[in-house]
From TrEMBL, chains A, B:
<feature type="site" description="Involved in the stabilization of negative charge on the oxyanion by the formation of the oxyanion hole">
    <location>
        <position position="115"/>
    </location>
</feature>
<keyword id="KW-0055">Arginine biosynthesis</keyword>
<keyword id="KW-0963">Cytoplasm</keyword>
<feature type="binding site">
    <location>
        <position position="405"/>
    </location>
    <ligand>
        <name>substrate</name>
    </ligand>
</feature>
<comment type="pathway">
    <text>Amino-acid biosynthesis; L-arginine biosynthesis; L-ornithine and N-acetyl-L-glutamate from L-glutamate and N(2)-acetyl-L-ornithine (cyclic): step 1/1.</text>
</comment>
<dbReference type="Pfam" id="PF01960">
    <property type="entry name" value="ArgJ"/>
</dbReference>
<dbReference type="GO" id="GO:0004358">
    <property type="term" value="F:L-glutamate N-acetyltransferase activity, acting on acetyl-L-ornithine as donor"/>
</dbReference>
<dbReference type="InterPro" id="IPR016117">
    <property type="entry name" value="ArgJ-like_dom_sf"/>
</dbReference>
<feature type="binding site">
    <location>
        <position position="276"/>
    </location>
    <ligand>
        <name>substrate</name>
    </ligand>
</feature>
<comment type="pathway">
    <text>Amino-acid biosynthesis; L-arginine biosynthesis; N(2)-acetyl-L-ornithine from L-glutamate: step 1/4.</text>
</comment>
<keyword id="KW-0028">Amino-acid biosynthesis</keyword>
<feature type="site" description="Cleavage; by autolysis">
    <location>
        <begin position="188"/>
        <end position="189"/>
    </location>
</feature>
<keyword id="KW-0808">Transferase</keyword>
<comment type="function">
    <text>Catalyzes two activities which are involved in the cyclic version of arginine biosynthesis: the synthesis of N-acetylglutamate from glutamate and acetyl-CoA as the acetyl donor, and of ornithine by transacetylation between N(2)-acetylornithine and glutamate.</text>
</comment>
<dbReference type="GO" id="GO:0005737">
    <property type="term" value="C:cytoplasm"/>
</dbReference>
<dbReference type="InterPro" id="IPR042195">
    <property type="entry name" value="ArgJ_beta_C"/>
</dbReference>
<keyword id="KW-0012">Acyltransferase</keyword>
């Protein structure tokens, strides 16, 4: 059961961005597992991809092709096409060539994305025959169906949509994401697709995506496992009737950037809320660090500790395990007597020891909630970092002992 | 059920080293939870301790006192006396003072050790009254009872004993260890005590312990959580009738060092075999690294991945998850096309992709075993590192959701 993740909200269509879904039966017959996304001519596209050295064939192709003018995104689930060597590259290229021929663009203008089982060759011969059906299905109104089409172990489709006013014109930002396990994105996420009709120059769009991903997809972790296929794409179709945004000083940039960051954050948090076996949505906030890295080191140590994660699952305010994780996070010359730890607003540890006024019932009350903030004050400087994560439950073990990633 | 851990072997007494057990009812009434160890006058003692910044009060005291000539080790379970601030230090000092008075040594000659729940004050008033009983119980033959006395979530007592010949004389090395969770020792382990009757100068003994711990206790991980209380002590009573070992060139040093390393390795591996919820004993061997650090980074990434650990639990030869972990381990400029991965002798991945000759049944056969070696060949250099770890089972979650560390 996802934590605090309601039904899919209204996802406004983005003028100039169409989505089409088809069923290739890659892992299961009848499953909608192929999504084609089309960005109108003149769109700009930005992307960030996994830093995993074993990146999948489609990620390699995407990286090569970001320099061209991509027009189509071809997504499949059920197969990650990772760890598949040369044959995997050939299979990915074949699907792109087939789509390019059908729509009359160059193969380099197709960006492929795969997610699912690692180490099995992409069944191009299943995907190619259903591409005409996906194209026939293309519509600006298909975000909700596409959100379902990209799911793997997700229990719910994920999406977010915002409309803002720039120079009196309505500008739309809509996105979808997927992922529930093998989640510790590094520069990107499992899969995320966001489109806007704002006209944004590609370098501006790319810088904005990198910044937004750093504050959202790159700040979530479920199991600390960085996927081989993480990709997040941001498309600007330019069909809103506003002046081109060609720099971060341009009119409308600030409003657009804020809205895009919000959409990415909601999408990233949705992945955590639907984390494999998650029963808690946990915010880990580290304040008072001397630099961002030490804040992140502490936050990840807490977010990845199996002992803290099982205590969260048990709703046990086991603050000793939090102190232990802070202590082994590797912060140089850490003065433990300056450290305070809070569960929501309850101070459980002051100056490195149990807070004198703390009584266990207060901690137990917070831990019983579905949404919990662990706040750690390091007392070393002015830097802060925030991560979002889940607990570790029996269900996580069951899912991952049974599912072949 | 521990993996491949039989009943406690014969633990030979070490002349000059006596152990006494008592019951203070720290966590449960009737439980043997206090152990006093006495090193005969003239013994040398070496120790290594946790690098966790939130180290426990007894660890702080031990560090301060290693410079003196310690004679007694005072161990309690049921309470870690960590995260307890000044009052924790006072409580630890009080127990030491009480023991010192009873045996007629200085308080600085007592080394305290605690393990159990973090964040609760050590109940000195329960421990002090039972010290006379522990002293009355002192005997060189008490290793097996002491091995039980230091257990927490351990399901079996752990011990190892070797006898070697040096210059025609029998020299004995006997040790015990405890720990099953919060195990990723850094410079030491949860608790380990090893004694020998060889006469070894303290600096030689300390260097030997550090080297041996690095190859044993510092190469095991269960959950990646470095404890606040890790301590490993090596005592040399000097009662064997051989020439003093005052340098690494001295006669007998090589044989003694080899035997001590073996004892530490057996004790460290025993902790993994009895890891919380463990159903597998897993050796992770990384060869062909450019340096030791990158071998360790890859080995720990594999050993800590919840996805690999759940696949091990499920006996699923899910090599894609292994590749993904190698890929995100942070090795700079990793050439994935040089990487081979083996499960025991079965090559599952060659040059970064599925080995052409590999069939799933071979991998499944290895994964069905209780003891498995994951071997990763990086093809970058001549360095190797080996770790030992466990799988991640439902039982791990149950134990840690229920137990208050």
């Amino acid at each position: 059961m996802p934590v605090g993740l309601g039904p899919l909200p209204v996802l406004h269509p983005v003028p100039g961005f169409r989505l089409g879904i088809a069923s290739a039966g890659i892992k299961r017959v009848g499953r909608k597992d192929v999504v084609v996304m089309e960005a109108a001519e003149g769109s700009t596209i930005a992307g960030v991809f996994t830093q995993n050295a074993f990146c999948a064939a489609p990620v390699t192709l995407c990286r090569q092709r970001m320099g061209s003018t991509p027009r189509y995104l071809l997504v499949n689930t059920g197969n990650a096409n990772a760890g598949t060597g040369k044959p995997g590259m050939v299979a990915a290229e074949r699907t792109c060539e087939a789509l390019a021929e059908l729509v009359g663009v160059k193969s380099e203008q197709i960006l492929p994305f795969s997610t699912g089982v690692i180490g099995e060759l992409l069944p191009a011969d299943k995907i190619i025959p259903v591409l005409p059906a996906a194209l026939e299905n293309l519509s600006e109104d298909n975000w909700a169906v596409a959100a379902e089409g990209i799911m793997t172990t997700d229990t719910q489709p994920k999406g977010c949509s915002r409309q803002i006013q720039i120079a009196g014109q309505t500008v739309t930002i809509t996105g979808t994401s997927k992922g529930a396990g093998m989640i510790r994105p590094n520069m990107a996420t499992m899969l995320g697709y966001v489109a806007t009709d704002a006209p944004v120059a590609q370098p501006v769009l790319q810088a904005l995506l990198r910044e937004a991903a750093d504050l959202s997809f790159n700040r979530i972790t479920i199991d600390g496992d960085t996927s081989t296929n993480d990709s997040c794409m941001l498309v600007a179709t330019g069909q809103a009737a506003i002046a081109p945004i060609d720099s971060t000083e341009a009119a409308g940039y600030a409003e657009l950037a804020a809205a895009i960051k919000e959409v990415l954050l909601v999408l990233a948090q949705a992945i955590v809320r639907d984390g494999e076996g998650a029963t808690k949505f946990v915010t880990v906030q580290v304040n008072g660090g001397g630099n961002r890295n030490e804040c992140l080191d502490v936050a990840y140590a807490v977010a990845h500790s199996p002992l803290i994660k099982t205590a969260l699952f048990a709703s046990d305010p086991n603050w000793g395990r939090i102190l232990a994780a802070v202590g082994y996070a590797g912060v140089p010359n850490l003065d433990v007597e300056k450290i305070d730890v809070y569960l929501d607003d309850v101070c459980i540890t002051r100056q490195g020891g149990r807070a004198p006024e703390y009584v266990e019932e207060q901690g137990a009350r917070v831990m019983a909630q579905e949404e919990i903030t662990i706040r750690i004050e390091l007392g070393r400087g002015a830097c802060s970092e925030t991560l979002w994560t889940t607990d570790l439950s029996h269900e996580y073990v069951r899912i991952n002992a049974e599912y072949r990633t």
